[in-house]
């Protein structure tokens, strides 16, 4: 028994009957308008009444009936044998005064509506799909499908209520329209069928920016459909090697780093969607910019032309990095001085030069560097030459190779000289062995025999002519082979132990089981730009022998993997901005930071406009960085188009546009290239205030839309009428918005026009960003665009997306959607770990959370790992819950150095540890000491020193101040906080050390330096005469010696 047509008054109870029998007993459920009836989500108003027996009864009871209950109901019986549907029956809900015609009775009429509207689908080329469309009403509507103006459903076979369109072998995208019609109206709904295919090749890339080690490309997508990401392929021009690929590029602009300076490259771009990768674009050829040479000139030689003139020659560097503009030759008789104090000789476009006016019978050291238009390269190793006529130069390419347990083969290239009588070889066993001298006949090699096994020897070689002995080579060393007699058996294997001396990974490593017939081994997965200590041990069946002498070696440089930190920008005026930053974290520098690049571009509506610009900040040798303490206010730069250097610290760049936004990023570079860029910082130049705000407020505060505004006296529309039309005209409704998060930390945003546009659409505005961050990013799109890929979507964060459509009146109501990205473990470590407030048994530690993009969720706790550096195998771990960024570590040993690092946790687990820092607890008798020791004032013959002491300092323990290289000592009362040091010499640098008397180890120390003022004015100014009638007085100033530098 199935349900019957029923009419019920609003708020009354309606009961739809159903009964079924079968074996086994069936389960009865109900459907309304082809959708299951949910009896659990209506506060018990709708319930199913079940009863046993045969047949099984399952009536549907609806209490407090309302218009939303009206529709077509079906009873469904299901058991293991199958499913059976009852005939449908309509339920009508009417008010007390409504009338409905049923059979011969009065019935209410309902226009058609979609109970199951068609949905959009994406399919592969040649795929199949079924599209379902269900409409209801009274009378029940006919339902048909259309493709454009073409009817897909025959007129004589048009179904009522439900129509399923079957599509097979679909080759192109199209919009299909479902039409529901009855005597009360016609409604339509559209289903978009998108055929996904491999993407087309992007447009030919365009080079928008070029540096010595990077190329910035932009390109057109070339695809009307959304692209998942792009692949950039590049290789050196005319190279036979395959293209290198950069995967997962989410935008149509990208900077390829790590390139070689002054080199030609070929680039092309490939688009990828969820079907696969398409064909590559047409290639573009370009050349990187010049850079200072990365290597020194090769094969530097020097020989005498006379007793006061030498001839120096060399070859071009292996890595010139550009067009060599010339060379600088440095020479000195005192090589212990800094090279800036050496004499310099410039050479233009030649690899040979002479240097004259030298002192006879002296030994000179010589170095050479090359330079390009960008700057100087590194200096060559120094060579020596003796200023004596006829004396040979240094032998070249001096090498030593062990041949056996008792012999070493020495080889060299003879110096350029007419006559070499013989060579003098000087060698010694070990660092402190006695030097031995032997004479060698002219040649290019010599086998030195009779040496001790497994011993390190040091060698120097000089050539002799009849006029005298030339300069010796730099000292080299080699070790003889191990004696087989000391193997004490057959070598079965080798083992290698190695540990980083200055890297983050301070744990010792050991490699066992190296075959006995192997004498070399490749150590892999080491840290970049890190010094390692390595030893080798031989094994017999009995066990391991002694370790070899350790070898120290440093891995090669690489581009920085971390961006500069704490990038700050601020507007200086309407045409200038200022940027400052700090160096990348030390373990991500991967080499000596040689300089920085500041990239900046004008922004409009969140998108870059115009050509990006670049400012290169090259550091001098003395400024190459190894730590993270460098604050680049020191390297602050103010951006403009017209550079004027204010001081070493600041650079003003004027000519930017007023009231304009700019995006700035900073990147550090080593000799290997530029590294990761900092996150873009937005800054706007200042300008005039926005006009019209006052008028807008007036309109909004009154009933402006209900009045008619008059024209101005000359008949033209005035500002009030313009604002009235803006505020009161209809704007578009909400667009449809779909957000899809990808696995590549991006979000694909797609949209469709709103139903009510009130005129042609002129574009869209998208605002999006993290819910916990302000402000949101704002982008505007044309009316033809329908998708956008948002990048840098952080894991473990919630994002909000607001989309509105615009017509000629303005932007309409926003469609708002949110997505939440699942958490992961942090990929970054806590920043800026440091210690403060150290006592003899405790220390206060502070740090900052990982950078936002690397947190990957909410930080739930931190793990602190610390250890006594003298007990490396017993680290201690402490959890910080809740996730505070400061803690006091207590229970420590006095006068002990500790190593500490910290890592962050999310709900998914811990991230990597931070680089370790070290601190030392105070000795017990020195647990309190002065702080903030500084120079307060400087005079010609005196310096005023000042410091602070804690409140609980023991005043019975006095201070000492040492200066003048420790020759002078001043004792200071423990309660004093300053001291005037007198009887100093004018214009002289002094170093002052403040110390407590402490223990025999010397106590704690603070050191400052100061330079006394010059003794320029030796008398006071004197007044001449009295004040005249104009209130003027004449002053006679003391004379200044003519040789003094006066600023």
TrEMBL record:
GO molecular-function terms, A-Z: protein tyrosine phosphatase activity
Catalytic activity: O-phospho-L-tyrosyl-[protein] + H2O = L-tyrosyl-[protein] + phosphate
Record EC number: 3.1.3.48
Record-annotated Fibronectin type-III domain positions: 201-291, 296-392, 394-483, 487-558, 563-688, 731-824, 829-924
UniProt cross-references to CDD domains, sorted A to Z: FN3, IgI_2_RPTP_IIa_LAR_like, IgI_3_RPTP_IIa_LAR_like
A GO BP annotation: presynapse assembly
Membrane-topology annotation of the record: Single-pass type I membrane protein
Alphabetic keyword roster: Disulfide bond, Glycoprotein, Hydrolase, Immunoglobulin domain, Membrane, Protein phosphatase, Receptor, Repeat, Signal, Transmembrane, Transmembrane helix
UniProt cross-references to Pfam families, sorted A to Z: fn3 (PF00041), I-set (PF07679), Ig_3 (PF13927)
GO cellular component, one term: glutamatergic synapse
Subcellular location: Membrane
SMART domains, per database record: FN3 (SM00060), IG (SM00409), IGc2 (SM00408)
Occurrences of domain Ig-like (ranges): 1-92, 112-194
Function: Can bidirectionally induce pre- and post-synaptic differentiation of neurons by mediating interaction with IL1RAP and IL1RAPL1 trans-synaptically. Involved in pre-synaptic differentiation through interaction with SLITRK2.
Xref: PANTHER family: PROTOGENIN, TITIN
Family per similarity comment: Belongs to the protein-tyrosine phosphatase family. Receptor class 2A subfamily.
Protein name from the UniProt record: Receptor-type tyrosine-protein phosphatase delta
Organism lineage string: Eukaryota, Metazoa, Chordata, Craniata, Vertebrata
